[in-house]
Amino acid sequence: MRISCTVNGEPQQADDVWEGESLLYLLRERLGFPGSKNACEQGECGSCTVYLDGVLACACLIAAGQAQGRDVRTVEGLADGDGLSAIQQAFLDAGAVQCGFCTPGLLVAAHDLIARHAVPADADIREALAGNLCRCTGYEKILEGVRLAAARRAA
């Protein structure tokens, strides 16, 4: 089957897509957007979080065919132009990135949170990131990154 969708604002097309193929596989292997990570394949870890028509979704749980004609935004699409987005820069500045496996999903979820709540409380941050698992950082640096991005945006 042929899939046509928009990824990060650009029209994309993939041919010979298998009916059981996931959106994550389509993005990473067929369309060349490797930012979203393949970790659990069960929607539990959040590493594959993307926007699908503006709503957060685990790309590992979505059939590729469901992306037909839809808008997908990955971690690669968070930045405007060649620079990093505010949340990406804040994660770097706060030391929130270690192995990087959970980072794409955390960035997308944090980006969504800050877009909805300019200055989120810690409880809001924890709730927004609850679907993302990290084995390296202990989460404090991640929380600092979100706080830093929110503070910079509010300033």
Distance between the termini: 48 Å
Report helical residue fraction: 25-40%
Residues in β-strands, percent:
5-15%
- Weakly predicted, low-confidence segments: none
Shape: globular
Instruction: Please state the average pLDDT score.
Output: 95
Radius of gyration: 15 Å
Number of helical segments with 4 or more residues: 5
One letter per element, helices H and strands E, the order comes to EEHEEEHHHH
Largest sheet, if any? 5 strands, mixed
- The SS-based structural class is alpha+beta
Strand order of the largest sheet: 2-1-5-3-4
What is the strand tally?
Answer: 5
Topology (elements, then pairings):
Elements: E1 3-7, E2 10-14, H1 23-30, E3 49-52, E4 55-58, E5 71-73, H2 86-94, H3 103-116, H4 122-128, H5 140-154
Parallel strand pairs: 1-5
Antiparallel strand pairs: 1-2, 3-4, 3-5
Helix pairs in contact: 2-5, 3-5
Description:
The protein has 155 residues and is α+β, with helices and mostly antiparallel strands. Helix content is 34%, strand content 14%. The protein is built from five helices and five strands; from the N terminus they run E-E-H-E-E-E-H-H-H-H. A five-stranded mixed beta sheet has the order 2-1-5-3-4, with helices on both faces. The longest helix has 15 residues, at 140-154. The radius of gyration is 15 Å and the shape is globular.
In short:
The protein is of the alpha+beta class. The chain is globular. It has five helices and five strands.
